[in-house]
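Supplementary notes for students who missed Thursday's class. We covered one full example, reproduced here. Read the sequence, then the structure, then the short commentary at the end.
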Amino acid sequence: MFALFADAAPALAVKICHAGNLKGQKGKGRWTQDGRAREADRGGDNSNASSEQPPQAMTVDVPQAILFCINLLSELAWQKMGLHINPVTKQLETDFPQARLAIDAVGQLVELLRNHVGEREYNELRTLLANLQLNFAHQVQSQQSGQEQKP
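Structure (token representation):
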């Protein structure tokens, strides 16, 4: 189901890391946005600094960024519906209002991409959205019928 995003997401993550200045030190980039070394990295023992080159400027394609957001939001929707395990808590959790918000956002983003992706990709995105909506309705209905059976 997520095959559409398998190619776009890793490449986009690399682009975002370079553009977001995340390469180098953990949590803080070694390079400023204009490609110069940060002040803290210029002095002292920088035996590795001379061999490292600043990352080359990369552009992020907006449709790819939107696909990345769709992938992120759809995964959150699956988690909030209780159908995927939350990787942080390692548990299934439900939060239907958040799941609905994520699904609605995916729907809006899919429509934004209508004229920016091919027909096949657009149909795959519509299928993803339909699967999210159907599973959401099923999960809500299951929870409501489970609550009605309990006295």
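Commentary. The two ends are 39 Å apart (CA to CA). Residues 1-38 have pLDDT under 50 and may be disordered. If anything here is unclear, bring it to office hours.
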